[in-house]
Write a structure and sequence with these properties.
six-stranded mixed beta sheet, alpha+beta, single chain, 2 helices, Immunoglobulin-like
Length: 264
Amino acid sequence: MLKLTEACRAALRSFFHTHRAGRRARTGASKGTRSFLFMILAATVTAQFWTAPPASAQPRQIFNTFDLTASANYVLVGYSATLTATYSLDVGPTPYYIEIFDHTTGALVKECSTGKTCSKSVSYSYPTTHTYVAYVSGYGTTEPPPNVQTKSNPETIVWQNQLVLNGPQAVFNNGTATLTANASFDVGPTPYYIEIFDQTTGLLVPSACGYGTVCAVSVQIIQSCHTVLHTFIAYLAEYGTMDPPPGIVATSNPWTVQFTGPPC
């Protein structure tokens, strides 16, 4: 709805007050007053019509996304994982950077002044756990950096000896989860196997790997209209089909997967 100016409102109130006061004869002067007031009203409405911004020009709320991912959350000592921060806008035309920090130490890991992504590989030669976080901000070498515009989710990476297990956190529509166990040595020349067990059922996930440093298995838990969680674990051990197997040399981290069936 168009708004009348205060001057126009005052003139209209004066006109109607005079009109009610005496209902005087319509002299040439009163006709002139009414014509003048009508011109003010018309000019005000016209001005507001032409100056009101169109609906398409109204500012819109823009939602930007920013997240941090790790190529693996469990890594063998001496090996690396890649951190990737992804922003929905290119920071190149702005005064801001994408910066990744080691939240455990507060140190800057990587800064990028252009583009939408920023990546860095990280590695440790001893068992340790570090949490990382990314910012869109001004340039800084300690956490938190200056002029923070947005902050990512945290990502934690664990470096451990001998055996690690990774996989997806969730699969949908009765999909298949691929679980991967990485060992620090080749089990081929040894009497041991890399074995992955479903701790929820206590059974070996077919099949055990008797050589190499990597063992990858596929798991599918068929569901109907609901969701279940299964936790898995890997061992360097003698061959066995029940958890735990005999002759365990090393045990991995547990890994939990959410299996969801199709909608009903």
